[in-house]
Amino acid sequence: MYVRFIEITSPSNVQFDMAVSWFKTDRSVLALESGATSFEVVKLSENSGMIVIHWPDEKIAKNFLAENSKQLREMMAQNKTRILEGPLLFSSTRDEN
Predict the structure, then answer these.
(1) Nearest alpha-carbon partner for 46 in 25, 72, 77, 15
(2) Which one of 38, 57, 65, 93 has the fewest beta carbons within 10 angstroms of its own beta carbon?
(3) Spatial contact of 8 and 51, defined as CB atoms under 8 Å apart
(4) CA–CA separation, 8 vs 40, rounded Å?
(5) What kind and span of H or E run contains 14?
(6) Torsions phi, psi of 9, nearest 5?
């Protein structure tokens, strides 16, 4: 499992809402169709958030980024972004049953 974090800070609340909308309606759908196992957005403040994308492996994650770098660069031109990624070391979840 490979995880990519995209931290995004927009100049305004409206621009942040627009970016979240783009990730929700466009990027998340495309990422899931391209092999991502989950795509989550966490709001950190009125104009910032963190996108968390889980991929089956590094190769699929890197290929997706390479194939979609133009669109990401356009979004990055309007928002402050930082991308961090790496292999998942472990994950713990509670069984609800």
Answers:
(1) 15
(2) 93
(3) yes
(4) 13
(5) helix 13-22
(6) -130, 125
Q: Which residues pair with 85 in a beta bridge?
A: 4
CATH class held by domain 2-87 = alpha beta
Please name which of 22, 17, 14, 11 lies closest in space to residue 72, comparing C-alpha atoms. Answer: 22
Splitting the chain (97 residues) into consecutive groups of 10 residues, what average pLDDT does each group show?
Answer: 96 93 92 96 96 96 88 81 94 82
What CA–CA distances, in Å, run from 86 to 24, 57, 95? 23, 10, 26
CA–CA gap between residue 48 and residue 90 (Å, rounded): 27
Locate the domains of the chain by residue range. Answer: 2-87
| C-alpha 16: how far from chain center | 14
CA 20, 23, 24, 26 dihedral sign is positive
CA distance 38 to 62: 16
Amino acid at residue number 33: E
Tokens of 31: 């990422």
